[in-house]
Design brief:
Elements lengths: L4 H9 L3 H4 L2 H5 L8 H11 L3 E9 L5 E9 L2 E9 L18 E7 L7 H8 L11 E9 L4 H9 L14 E9 L23 H25 L8 H6 L1 E6 L3 H7 L1 H19 L8 H18 L12 H21 L1 E2 L2 E2 L3 H10 L3 H13 L5 H7 L14 H11 L16 E6 L4 E6 L14 H13 L7 H7 L4 H9 L19 H12 L2 E5 L5 E5 L6 H6 L17
Parallel strand pairs: 6-7
Antiparallel strand pairs: 1-2, 2-3, 3-4, 4-5, 5-6, 7-13, 8-9, 10-11, 12-13
Helix pairs in contact: 1-10, 4-7, 6-7, 10-14, 11-12, 11-14, 12-13, 13-14, 16-17
Amino acid sequence: MRPTPRLELLQTLARSADHAMDPHELGTARQTRHSFARQLIRHAHQDGWKVTRRVWDLDEQGCGTAIYSVAMGFHVVELVIFSQVIDESLRTDRVIAQDWDVTSALVDGLFAASDIDDLRRQVTRQEEGRANDRTLIWGRANRSQRFFDYVVECLAEGRQPESENVSDSAYILRSTAFYGNGKWGLRDFEGIDAEHPLATPYRAQMLAAWLLREFSADLAAHCAAQRSSRAVDLDTPWRRFLGLGNATGLGMVPYVIRHPQVLDAWVGLRELPLANALAQAWGSSSAEWSRVCALLERAQKYFVQKKSFSTEPYPSGPELAESLGEVLAWAIEYRDQGTIRESSCSHPAETLHSLAAERGTEVRQIVDSVLVEIDPSMDGDIEALLPCVDRTALDPRMTVGELRELVTKNYGWSAEFDFSQKTETEKFWFYSQNNQEPRRGRRNKDKGLVTEHPVGIAFEAHQLLVALGSCSADLSVGEFVVQHPECWGMAERVQSVSRLPYTEARVNPLSNDFLPLDLQRFQLAVYGMENFNPQSTDWLRVTLFGGAPTCGDIEAGEHVDDWLFLPRPSGVS
């Protein structure tokens, strides 16, 4: 079930699927050292990647071409960037946008100058363009409406940005997507050689995003220098603090539901390291516990500062910081006295985890991220977990009785939803041709039902169980699906994921009460995003690589793997 013996053992200690797959648990997830962004930065340093700005051909407005080259041992990839300035009215998070300030392509190998014009004609069109199989990722971004000009103005005047004028979730560029895996002719993930440094899932997307974050700071400094001879570069602490903006909508929900093996790996990425951390018996005077205290103190400062954006329906940053103050006090008590709340304990991480849960699930999630941060020995095991067989196959020889047992055992949670109530199936999911992304509609009222996405897993499990109950237990599944073809997909799914614990979120996306934000936030935390700023029940804004090392940091070996919950630059309130 798990790719390494250590993970197999930890799975026996890990929390149950009913706990790990609860929507509130998923919806309060935070980044950890195993999030994709953290993994990328760690490998860039450990493997000695060298980033150079090979081409910089921009005019005074920042329009033109830039190429960032990444030497990874025997491999080279390059991010080719096309920059322009579009009208403010055209800047939008929507997939259907036609123009962007910045478009980019991550290309495998050195990019030939003679191919620039051909690439520009395609990549700048994005949805309408076509790639070749040397290209791994296409991305696009816009200049921040709030902060791009402000940062440029400050630098042009010879000064750094002022903290009171910069949001707690600030960025210079806001990305809208990083596409890969065959779309528009891009190279399929399976077409990346197993020995390639980008052969780990989502590694190429994370690299493209990190380089674009680097470009954003370089672009601001360039535009400032074109305005004034007094201009200065953006200081390194600000380069780290300013992340890459992003936003996500309903499209992430069908993806994670329709790829259960991927979901299992992503939840395992969080649950197995947590099981390892909770099993540790760190002493009160140990270096590990001293690190726990330091990180909790840093996390509290980080969340105190998060005042400039809304987090509803989740707790605000200052609310979280207040509860973290109590948790920090307990951790310091153990460090200084060997007790937590005046009681001795043999496993302080487990005790702190349990006590933090009394202050709220999201508080506990922050504490869990801190506890997981302490042990780097699991990094390789977790990366081995990510590649998975993302396919299903029907076993027609299984009997109806055996399939019924699997459904009852693994999908008993679906009985929590009363499907006799209209509200539990009132919504349906479809792909909007106009918006070019998934949408929700009202059943029997809105158009699009003929293209309904099969995301109602709880309802399908209920229907499958009803159909199985009408058949003989000795009937083969092959014969059963001939009689009930509408059950084929769910029967195949049940069989294919039966040995994996974390494949099904305990949600009903067909219900009026379903909150898409929970699954969206979980996925964004796995990516490594932070500053969750919901705009409605259906979409939210975030930042990626906020606090992350710069390319210069990687080469200098500074600030490489220590940026969990990193507050504003030193001296900035």
